[in-house]
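Ticket #4471: complex job returned nothing on first submit. Input attached below:
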Amino acid sequence: MTGPTNAMITDGTLLVHCSANQALRCAPVAERPGAGLVVSPHQRDEAGLLATAAYLLRQRRFEAPLLLDAARYAGQARLPASAPFNPRWLRRQRELGLPVLTDSGYVDSGDEPGLAGILHRTAVLPGTIAVLPLHPAWLQDRLHRTVLTGHIRAAGVPVALVLEAGRDPFALPGVVEGLLAVLGCGVPTLLLRCDVSALGALCHGAVAAAVGTVAGLRHLTPRTPPPRPGARPHGFRPVAPSAVFRPTLSYRRIGAIARAHRGRPDPELFGCACTVCDGRDVDWMAALSDRDREVPAFEHSIRVLQDLRDELLPRDRPTEQPPGTAARSWTARCADAEYRSRELGWDAAPMLRHWQRHGPTGAAAATRPAA
Ligand SMILES: [Zn+2]
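Support reply: We reran it on our side without changes. The output follows.
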């Protein structure tokens, strides 16, 4: 898949999903082989997002793949799937030489006309990727899944999925299975707003998957119901930053990693060779304030996920891997991570079990936890 002038999205691309106010800081992290950037508006400012993109491309000479996500499907004022695309939004992406993503509204669980509408309207636009911001029932429920994959096959256009969930959508039963069904439709598939499961998607054939810089960009947060009359408004509570803990393939609070480390001073498990940690134990960030650890936590996480991607899908010799090798390796990594989680006394991330259950058979049996 290519944009007319922006760098090509090659198979197995691991993107960073950030908001426009983070884009300049994220650009260096996203500029390496097999990486790239997805940028969503900061506080719904689409004009600001376009200006940021123009700056990145023209002044900053950003050379990795760049995608713009209008995110009109998100937030309290989100638009429904039936909302028409904004022709100016589509045109501006084209003028910037970028891959074109539709500015789709949200596809609720009962909204088959909305789903079909997005795909039909995309099919008549040359070289455009249909953004599908989905209620998780579209992947979880067998009947929904059949309808979804039927419409995707019929339209035959590339799709970029965004999955709604309070936390990790891949923790929900049926979501991994549903994603694999979409990947089996034979259209180029991207996954936006994701976390560690981005790697699973890439190993199973997604063209690209994007990992969010902050929790709010690692899934589509459901709209909160309006407060009950007379209920006390609860204030905004900032979320303490989490970081990817490589042995358990999961995002963990830095404090939780530090506590586990005190109980088990095992250098093999806690040392991190990423460019941010530079050989230090990963909980070095615990000494920083929540505010100061946000940037290193994000950079560490992206670097670790990029390294894992390179190990699972070696970019220098992709054709040497027999088909299914990456998916089998991913299943084996999930089994190992589940074992490591139990060893540390943590609940394993539920997605680990779902990926193993639906991965290539026999892989888990071949897994031996690393010494
Ligand atoms: Zn690190």
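The two ends are 40 Å apart (CA to CA). Closing as resolved unless it happens again.
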